[in-house]
Amino acid sequence: MTEAAAIARSSGPVTQARLVVDFQRLGVTPGMTLLVHASLSRIGWVCGGAPAVISALLQAVGPEGTIVMPAQSSELSDPSGWCDPPVPESWWETIRATMPPYDPRLTPTRGVGQIAEIFRTWPGVQRSLHPQVSFSAFGPQAADILARQPMEDPFGAQSPLAALSDRDAQVLMIGTGWETCTALHLAERLAQPDGPTFQDGTCITVEGERRWVRLCLPVTDIERFQPFGATLDGNALLRHGHVGSAPSRLFPLAPAIRMATERWTGSEAA
């Protein structure tokens, strides 16, 4: 969405103060741990842009709260699997040989929106070490949440998602659809711990040297997120509201993961 379109859909500027009130009305409270997915354009014309949204989130949870966002960098993968857009096969070996290694300080996010990208660079924000599907976090629980993320099981029982579940985190979706709900990847892994995998590659630094490494990663299926989300939308666990003009949701991560795991385990068994 263009800035002109955001202005057209807004009844007035969305200020940081209004955002704080909207978060509070939705159920965000001081001390809360939040996994946030957000679309800046869906909020409307925000006075101050993405930094204003981040400042409002930090204000709403206060100094005892923790904010977490996906910080995915899908371009650090094997070019043979790229499809949006693909690159010529004749380029693949050059890309593998020259791709810069993952650097949690410098590697930009891809496909997670302006708010997550600005949050990644926010003073004091920490980032996990997975080269493709990292998370960034700010707050007293950030280091513990990001401490573990296995290279070949980045969404499983030892991941930041599992740490968030253990800490009674809430998921805040601001103008985003269920296909963006990264937390549900944890339910996939719990439902199918020995599920299908695929071969990939990435570039990392090992003992000070750049290395291209091969990975065996779990297959994910976001096509089932929407049907499950439609069920959750009608559950009392989930609160609906608006942040600016953006339809938004707030729900506890752990119960939602239990529900999705039970549903998908049952469907696989059937």
UniProtKB/TrEMBL annotation:
GO annotation, biological process: response to antibiotic
InterPro entries, per database record: Amioglycoside_AcTrfase, Antibiotic_NAT-like
Protein family: Belongs to the antibiotic N-acetyltransferase family.
Catalyses which reaction(s): a 2-deoxystreptamine antibiotic + acetyl-CoA = an N(3)-acetyl-2-deoxystreptamine antibiotic + CoA + H(+)
Pfam families: Antibiotic_NAT
Keywords: Acyltransferase, Antibiotic resistance, Transferase
EC id: 2.3.1.-
Keyword Isomerase among UniProt keywords: no
UniProt key word Acyltransferase: yes
GO molecular function, one term: aminoglycoside 3-N-acetyltransferase activity
Top-level taxon: Bacteria
SUPFAM superfamilies membership: TTHA0583/YokD-like
Name of the protein this chain belongs to: Aminoglycoside N(3)-acetyltransferase
